What does this fold into?
Amino acid sequence: MEGMTYLAVGYFGMVVGIGLWTYTVVVRSRHLSDRLDAMEAALDRLDHDGEERA
Amino acid sequence: MTTTFKKVGPPQLTMKVRVGEALLLTGFLGITGTLLLALLWAPSVSLEAFESPAAQRIFYWHVPAAWAAFIAFGALFVGSAGWLFKRSERMWRLHVAGAEAGLATGLITVWSGCVWGAAEWGTPWDWSDVRLNTFGLLTLLAVYLVLGRASQPDGIETRDTFAGFGLYGFVLVPFTYIATRIWAIRHPGPVVATGEEGSINGDMGLVLLVGAVSFTVLIVGHLLTSMLITNSEQRLLHLQRRMDGGER
It folds into this structure.
């Protein structure tokens, strides 16, 4: 590889790498937030059902 | 192990996540802009001074990435010390965030340095250069901490081991910082904070400043988001145990 092509590949690799990393962090954060909401809603329902039976 | 989790209500959680995400995305746009400024606007360097003047433009990412890596390793150090001496959950989350951020920025620094070294020196790495090797070791430390945490069950002993590595590994940071001042082997000497007039002109300094600010915003965004992710993971585990009937 010569000159600017080499540099372009180097830069492109970094931009794609850090872009993917940023995207992964955001997706992980949102996914966990959704799972927590679902889990808390399920637990609230379980607690509510338990109180009704009692 | 008894763990207490700070229950963050959905509106607050959403706001904090959004602040972290906003900083992450702003930082990413900033570093992309830095790249464009470096390629299209920053002045060229002297043809006599460099073997590969075009590759020198990588410096506008390499130096700010290294700066961000030092911030991340600083967070790792504070988090490790906070966990070991105060047993603080918040400090453990800072340790985790610092290790992940240190890994990402460390890899960018190493990768950009290798690209430049291959163009300028004809070799991507020099095993006799102290700066290169101490920084490489720091990045390997972050690799160990991130992969280790992912593969080991969470517990006091595991955390103590990783925090110990985070604490003592930090000694490499000042060592790396002064390496080019003491041993000028292959890595170029400092161009900022040299105590005398630097070797970069105004426009170069401006692009470097934009890069440093952008990488700082990116890394702070990552630290905030990653700390919240760790908190969410721990809360999720706690709720799963409750659901299975183990805890109330």
Summary: The mean pLDDT of chain A is 81. The longest helix of chain A spans residues 3-53. Residues 15-45 of chain A form one domain. Helices of chain A lie at 3-53.
